[in-house]
Specification:
homodimer; 335 residues; alpha+beta; 2 domains; seven-stranded mixed beta sheet; two-stranded antiparallel ribbon
Chain lengths: 335, 335
């Protein structure tokens, strides 16, 4: 199925309204999820929409809850997301972090009782649009191994780092697992092997077989012991600073709900003009892109570059939606 | 050679004084480098000491320079390290970030014109001792590939993340390369193969042969494209916020001097008692340590755990110093 951005956004919005979202939240959430799909991350857009509606029905997502202030310590503020929709919590926390950093130069907004925020890059792009530098991450249910273990005890704790640039922001959006379970699932369905080891099989051997990892639940952190260490520290910092749930706390229900998140914004305009910031960023990007490609058929790129092209193409040609997902969404729209 | 901590520290201090360091800087720098050696990171302690003296002789390290304030924007301060000794710059920036975060909840101190800071974990342990959470990283000369490239264009940009805990702080200290060139060099000398691919050979194939990577200069980022992306973003953020040199700027001399660094401190005491912070941290650590080991002979650990044991052992039994390094240090002490 191919659909235009506006049509998709309106459809999702109407379903959200039927499910108890007020107009403001339905409009913003449907826009974020449609945008995620538009830029090529349907896994954190339409593909996850039916699961989101399910979580609303189960009461894990409160459609109209908004973050409320818990504590304010100058440049660091703690907020309670009250189990509102994850992308809206993150959107509002980003807004607040950007505003607060205009006062303090640097600011940190933490959320407890948040929900799955879908595509972290969305908040990076948002902050970069405002000319700010953003670092944000979330904790998650245990789905990755600590190093030397054969039991998932750490989250894949996705992170975004974003830097503004007029020719295209530089936005890294990644989980700490080598591959997401979404990716493993797709590869398994298509009968393809992973290009690099993605986890252990049930015998404790590293494997490139997505089905074996899906079965063992032993996904590999990036850089082996290094990514495992980062996941532990990200969980510690988000949990302590937000006063919210840790990965271990989330393991009690194993639901993607109630997580802790952190948003750190820097206001570079305190020191420079937009032009000066842009020149530094552009110089670094150009240097990276000047690297000799590995092979004749490889292209060196920077984080966020592909997003821009995909977005343009999908705006022009429409967005391709998986048929199974489309059927589910049509069903939701008729209920 | 086996030497006691105090003896090592006094020896290094006396050599520093001979090389133009004032007493305060000689005392602090020799203590940091001896401590790095004590905790098992001789590669960023005594092993690098002769190179440090060389950089002093060449004028790249100014023995008595101290960071001076450039700009203050509330919670974010820019400092010029004036090419002072890297570990002292980082030590003082950490002190300042910790102090500033007591005012603002969160604080960011940036350094331009700094120098190689040796073991980043040292600053993490320092902040954690003060009960604070610290994130700090540095940029570096290009020594790692951007993804899909066969030319080193990004730094390995080491990072530390630290969280306080009474039974032992949790401190991650890592470069973004899968293996350091120091590690590759040691493995090559010992004729050992890397346990996991560490880079490309000159033909563009992933390899576990440390000599091949040493030869090609194509070290692999952790998580392939993911670590490469992090390195780009770390460089962008440190360079923009400090107003200092980027990895590309540092490539002009390919000297480990003049880099940009960033120190972000959070004051958790704003929200909690030390006891409460400790309970959260301990709960997360215990959960990680409870994971079933991969094999009978593997032990699951948390970042920083091993440091404590090594430190205790070396305090008791003395520190083993490589004979070649020891000879060089003795020579320096006699000059």
């Amino acid at each position: 199925m191919i659909i235009q951005f506006n049509e998709l956004q309106k459809l999702l919005s109407s379903i959200l309204i039927k499910n108890g979202f007020d107009e403001e939240n339905a409009e913003l959430l449907s826009t974020i999820l449609s945008e995620n799909t538009l830029v090529g991350v349907a896994s954190h857009g339409v593909n996850r929409f039916p699961a989101l509606i399910k979580l609303v029905e189960m009461g894990h997502i409160q459609p109209n809850a908004k973050p409320t202030s818990v504590n304010s310590f100058g440049g660091w503020e703690q907020w309670d997301a009250n189990l509102g929709p994850g992308p809206l919590n993150a959107w509002r926390a980003t807004d607040r972090a950007v505003e607060l950093s205009k006062e303090h130069g640097v600011a940190c907004v933490t959320l407890k009782n948040s929900n799955h925020w879908m595509r972290p890059g969305a908040y990076g792009w948002k902050a970069a649009e405002a000319g700010h530098i953003l670092i944000c991450w979330t904790n998650a249910i245990p789905m990755m191994i600590p190093w030397e273990a054969r039991e998932p005890k750490v989250g894949n704790n996705p992170i975004t780092l974003a830097v503004p640039r007029s020719k295209g922001h530089i936005v890294l959006d990644m989980a700490l697992s080598q591959y997401s379970y979404g990716k493993l699932s797709t590869m398994r369905r298509e009968g393809r092997e992973l290009p690099y080891p993605g986890g252990y099989d049930n015998e404790g051997n590293l494997t490139t077989d997505p089905a074996a990892i899906y079965d063992s639940n032993l996904a590999l952190p990036i850089g082996y012991w290094k990514g495992a260490g980062m996941a532990i520290l990200f969980d510690l910092i988000a949990t302590i600073l937000s006063g919210g749930k840790s990965t271990n706390d989330l393991s009690e229900t194993m639901m993607d709900t109630g997580m802790s998140q952190i948003f750190i914004s820097f206001d570079p305009f305190k020191a420079y003009s937009a032009h000066a910031i842009n020149e530094i960023a552009d110089d670094i990007v150009q240097s990276v892109l000047s690297a000799k490609p590995l092979n004749e058929d490889t292209i060196v790129s920077y984080p966020g570059e592909r997003i821009i092209k995909t977005r343009e193409e999908n705006l022009k040609n429409g967005i391709t939606i998986d048929d199974v997902i489309w059927k589910k969404i049509k069903t939701l729209s008729l209920q």
